Amino acid sequence: MLLSIRHLEKRYADHVALNDVNLEIPKGKIFGLLGPNGAGKTSLIRIITQITGPDAGEIYFDGEPLRLEHADQIGYLPEERGLYKKMKVGEQLLYLAQLKGMRKEEAIAKLKEWFIRLDIKEWWNKPVNDLSKGMQQKTQFIATVVHEPKLLILDEPFSGFDPINANMLKDKILAIKERGTTVLFSTHRMDSVEELCDEIALINHAEVVLSGNKDEVQNRYKKNQFAIRFEGELSSIPGIEVVSSQTGNAILRFSEGMGTNEAIAKIIQQVRLLEFKEVIPSFNDIFIQVVSETN
Amino acid sequence: MNKILLVIQREYVTRVLKKSFWVSSLLAPVLITAIYAIPIWLAMKDKEQKQIAIFDQSHLLKSTDLQDKELVFTFTNIPEQAYKTQFAKAGYDAFVSIPVDVLANPKGVHIYSSKNIGLTLKESVERLIQNKVRQELMYKAGISEKVYEDTQVDIDSETITVSENGGETSSSSAGAMILAGIMGLILYVTLLLYGSQVMNGVIEEKSSRIIEVIISSVKPYQLMLGKIIGVGLVGLTQFVLWIVLTIGLTQVTGKIYASKTKAIAQMSQMEHGKAADDMAKAMQDSPMGEVTKVLESTNIPLILVAFLFYFFVGYLLYSSLFAAIGSAVESATEAQQFTFIVMIPIIVSFLMAQYTMQDPDSTIAFWASMIPFTSPINMMVRLPYGVPMWELALSMGLLVFGFLACSWISARIYRVGILMYGKKATWKELSKWLFYKG
């Protein structure tokens, strides 16, 4: 485990931000931190980045209790982003990289690699003010990853990116994961969760209400439902409930103990079956279901 | 530690590379030199002479009574009513009419001019007539001209500071006052100036939202301290530039004046040393002459070191408070409701300094130079008059203590404030932040 979070508590004057939060974030995986606004995601991230401290509980980073020095091994892209407007792009990134403990020459070399990789060589001497929003986002992303952190924390990384740059960012995140970096990313965009995450945790009202491997979570929320496409008339079959149906399409639920082969055998007696597949709940559905259950 | 250095470096370099820094660094010494040099230049320059017509019905004044470097008087017999519309055409700058009964009616003198006459011209004319009228009145009262002249003595004392071991130095209380005033004013301006620079820097980081990235790398107090020290070093750099450039410039202008005076003396075949005397007199009369005198009689290294100390530590104290305010707000306009409370002690200490200047050894002056908030300005104002070493040491110690206390409080507000958005900061809110846990 790269990050073990145990019994974490954080209270503010008027509300509880985190209540007995336990999470295990495995090394080299992309971990999705989900939850509605105000659930406590940012509070948790700020404790991991040591911007604030917890009221109780422990965090272990790569097996050691989290210390100040670990800040250099974490890269953090906050949801609300900003740069020094009047500084030049190159100088600014160099400053941020040095604040992460990189030596100057090393930082310059790595930054140059990134400038070539993202095809932005001509930006080095431009003041940030002259950059478009998308260009600033790229600059910020470089600042987050240039020191090759063990843990990359991305808070709503896709907000503000156009589809092309969002795709590029997705590729970069996957490439970084390939290098062995652990990525913790917080979002409420469920499509990116399905595409990128290996593990997820859902936080609602300061508590972890759901966590685990992505496929395993999806399996857990399967409702034993199947979608079919067919030709003919579908009338009632004992042991099979029609959840919804339109001309040529239907969603069915099988009673306990009925296998798919047995069900198909019964269906093809009535109609010509064109398509048959299991309904896998989307994370969007799971998210809405779990959040409304725990509210 | 290394990270604080990085923050200091960024704050310092970005500010020192700005054009405005160099403009103010170069402009101030030029201005100071001008204050020093222009009175001398004016004194050396030949004054334009004013032509004045005079109609004296009292027949009191003779042409020997009307001797003035800048004024040339011509008697006229044309009556006041007729000439007051004519004198300008005749080429006079002003027309003076003296009534028959001027001895009994000193307010009956009229000065006509086509343009508004200057105050100095009015005073010169009045002085000349007044001298004669007084003389005449004295004479009538039975006091001879000789006795009158002999009574016109000027008292000009020399002030001497006697140190404990009996050594004597000629001092100038006027000079000490000017030096004290200048140092007090500079401290007043720079404390406000650099303090608000720190505040604006904090607001910039907060409103541009870069703050969260930075404090995931350095602790908030490191960032705050780095910023304060960085900006403070910019201030020190500026002072050093000011001092070096001012000394350099005044030396150069002094040399130019010296050679010019010599040349004038040779050219006009004036009696030996006359021009040099003129210049020396002008220098003594100009405020810088007094300061030069006081500089000769005071411990300059002590004053310089104390000045830099009081600027730097006083600045650290105030700017930490400014940083706390900057962290609590989201824009400069929102900051105004808080800045006045930090500005009040600065303004109060500047006002107290006026009093300290009058009476540098009074109880109020003593306390004003001890209390950390008012001590930077007030101790610097007292210092040219001479301050016992133990008082200076105590005041410095208290100031350092005051800085530590203020920065502790500020750091606690700062670490909470920089992450607070959308919540309108109030005094109550700020005091709550003080007690928040990590």
TrEMBL record, chain A:
GO molecular function: any one? ATP binding
The segment(s) forming the ABC transporter domain are 3-230
- Which InterPro entries does the UniProt record give? AAA+_ATPase, ABC_transporter-like_ATP-bd, ABC_transporter_ATP-binding, DrrA1/2-like_C, P-loop_NTPase
| A Pfam family this chain is assigned to | ABC_tran
- Keywords from the UniProt entry: ATP-binding, Nodulation, Nucleotide-binding, Transport
Against PROSITE patterns, the record matches this protein to: ABC_TRANSPORTER_2
Q: Which family does the record assign?
A: Belongs to the ABC transporter superfamily.
Instruction: List the PANTHER family.
Output: ABC TRANSPORTER ATP-BINDING PROTEIN, ABC TRANSPORTER ATP-BINDING PROTEIN NATA
* Protein name in the entry: ATP-binding cassette domain-containing protein
Record organism: Aquirufa echingensis
